[in-house]
## 1
Amino acid sequence: MELLDILYTPLDTKDVPVVDSNDILAWLAENQNQAVRLRRDSSQVASPSLYPWNISYAKTLGVWKTDFKERFPELADYFSSAFGVEENDIKDIVFLPTKNEFEGTGFWHSDPDELGLRIYLENDDFEKDFLLMRPTIKKYNSREQVGYIPENGIDPKRFKEETYVAKLLKPRQAFFINNIRAIHAAKISKIGKKRIAIIVILKKNSISEIPPQVKSLIENSYEKYKDLAIARSD
């Protein structure tokens, strides 16, 4: 199985630290209106009615924002130790709590980071269809090749019609999502569901320079969780 043909898998990491999600949400609310240099997320370009998150950064360009590390030291350590990297290897840490008023399926997209390291700190929808995925038709080798993605996820020349549903072992879980050979959309079952996703972006972020321990983690996790993982069928 080629790494890029793994579209999604839970990751076999140590357990996500138990942190009071209300404390985290309070910090995120306090730090939501941030000045972020070289911003690459879709919060300022996606249709507001289809953008399901209140986005905040805990770390940007290798620098912790305000007092995050001091307030949540165990979680700050987890971002690196879970994936077998050093703290200085991480460029950005992005929190994506869902909007309380959002319900339904958000816009289809592919995240800008190629390695796709993710964590759910909370997910009230983990036993439902919380994340939808569609494979690309061509087997791309970089995020740049994916190009523009319509918000409805429909482009018969570039994306397959088949839709996969991601599964988790538990509501607090690290996972891998493929941003090169698949697109995805978050699905929130009803208003008020608590979900806090986290994006961990390494300084060396291309598939071509993936750290060997991260590559092994993804591949070994796929083998362990084949019943839950998603891979290309072609």
Note: The chain has one domain: 3-231.
## 2
Amino acid sequence: MSKRTILVVTGTRADYGLLRWIMQAIDDSPKLELQIVATMSHLSPEFGSTYRDIGQDGFTLTEKLDILDPSDTPQAMANSMAKGVSGFAEVFGGLKPDMVFLLGDRVEMLAAATAATLCQLPIAHIHGGETTEGLIDEPIRHSITKMAHVHFATTRSYQKRIIQLGEHPDSVLHVGAPGLELLHKVDLLSRSALEESLGFKLGSPTFVVTYHPVTLEARPEGEAFGQMLAAFKAFPTAKYIITYPNSDARGRVIIDGIQAFEQQHAGHVFVTPSLGQLRYLSAVKHCDAVIGNSSSGLIEVPSLGVPTVNIGRRQLGRIAPESVVHCGESTVDIVAAMQKALSSEFRKPLAGIDTLYGSGHVADAVVARLEAVSLNDILFKSFYCPVLK
């Protein structure tokens, strides 16, 4: 009996960190064959050429698809998607997978989903049903849900929302967040090992910072980011580990600001395009708080009992545990939130809180469904609406 071929698309350091153990479980399955297509910022030297991490983890990269428009505008993202639809159609035609596996809500995932739909390939999707009202990702995510045939939800609430979108309950499996899987697979680095790996001494306090563009905001991206950097002046002895934003439009003004901040605060700031999941979660474990507007602050960080300061509207609507301090984008608001996150009163009850995103045992459940699901007539979907039945 021939193996069922699952083609996994990865476009960034972030989604690869979440997909890593699912990919490994697919590769280890006697019933499945893994294909990997790396695209978008994975292939960009500016963002660390992170496709190399895939090979270093022992995987064989099946295909590289370069679709990233080098300019920094919303139009560039549209151009990247257009190139992606065409490019993925060619890739799918050559590799002939049985199913395409996608994560999340980025433009390269929408391009892959569109091409797969037109090429009549079934789609499996994880991290659907979620809401981020400050981002263009919101309609992209729900669009992929409507094109997908097998759904993996990270919370019960998101499972219900996928069904609310008209997907049949039998096609929607609650598995939890894949980003928590590493905590069960690998020992995180000790403080000294992390410092040696980074070539950077942690301090007291130490903050891990990731700030992404807020793609639906009308005002200049650097304005809110500048407010955050100004807030850091209230903590003059602090150390900062800062990662680059993703490759969304208007991200380069943030990169320029990060580089300038690093130069102005030599010895107190470590900057990198990508830490990788092991070093990132190790840095989180040994820091005092995570600052920014990344989904990791709401999903992975709470599992380590570390506070998150979530700035602005980028993650508006996403389920957040009690360890997350939400704040506005002004310097005053950010300073107050950072002070709250550092306070012993806030930190004391965080150990063992309910992260709301599951236990982290995701990959085996995903692979079991990928092995078992029937592909006969899977492309024929009816809109599930029990009220009308």
Note: The two ends are 39 Å apart (CA to CA).
## 3
Amino acid sequence: MIWLSESFRQQLPQPWRSLNEAFKITGDIYREPAGVNRRTLRFELAGQGYFLKLHWGVGWKEILKNLLSLRLPVLGASNEWRAIHKLHDLGVETMQLAAYGQQGWNPAASKSFVVTHELSHCISLEDYCMDWAENPPLPAIKHQLIRRVAQMTSKLHQHGVNHRDLYICHFLLQQPWQGGDEHLHLHLIDLHRVQIRDKTPFRWQVKDVGALYFSAMQAGLSQRDLLRFVRDYSQRPLRQVLAQDQAFWQAVNRRAQALLNQK
């Protein structure tokens, strides 16, 4: 099975009719984890940048290793394909799909790929906030970003989605941006491990928000900033949240501290 967006199809010299054509693409390799049959590369077509993620047979050994560690293995590109569609349905800004393909039903041996448009003129929140502790931004800028990240995370969790790698480096801020919610475009990326259910379990909400907190610890956020996030994520008055959700936020703090201790 191969799907090509109309704009991507028009730029190809000839339509891809097999996965082999995707696997022949060359470009700048961005990621190729050791021991995992997965590669991410950037290539250009008609002056447009794209990212291609290739997956091929992870093998039963890798599948069993993940299951024995109580982790769901990433079996192919279909997970990211579904996640991108889900985020678009929810109105959460993310990547734009260009192509997708899958071949074979054996999860240990199947091959698949996904192509997304490059998000140009973007900076990760990790880089954007890197010097905030020494050079604080305008309060309005900081508050708008906190509110948007909190709203995006809340929307995911309200609709049964958890990210599993929700660090601020995976939020890409469109540039230029000088402030104002109407001009703020923040894209959530790295969706290959996303889980989608009818309802997001408590522990996975804690892991996502704990990871966010951990990754933002060096951004010079004040106690008031953290409470803004709590309020905007919960979408209820702060007094009510602190009275009713104490166990959740304590668990988030423990998760963030545990990640900090692992550094």
Note: The two ends are 42 Å apart (CA to CA).
## 4
Amino acid sequence: MSRDASAAPISYSIDKTLGVIFEVWCGDVTAADLRHYWEAYLANPEVLALWRTLVDLRSANIRFTGEELSSLVSNVVIPVLKGRDWKTAIVVEQPVQFGVSRQYHVFAERYSTDCIFHNYDEALHWLLQQGGERPPGRI
């Protein structure tokens, strides 16, 4: 099965009123897809101005290894964030999605507080409880 090259497997939208980034993963997602996404995502000043993301993995087929994920966090995300704090609510449906989310949680603990959910509404509620403004002393 092939997919349209123009249809990115990861997309996001920003809700400025809520101060939340809504991210959706669909179909096969490879390490190359995630690298491309994070490089573009983290280059967006509107993204960096926020610090709360709701990631919906329920329609994703994860096609990368924990080692690849660790490398991307270390080499793509951490250098750009430069000490910023982040909060991430991750919504999963399948065991593989849960496992990858747990791996991300461990790799990203230097900059991110994460929580994994099976219910989208509970994820959003938790994320909104994290506050609307970036903590003092952080970029």
Note: Residues 1-5, 134-139 have pLDDT under 50 and may be disordered.
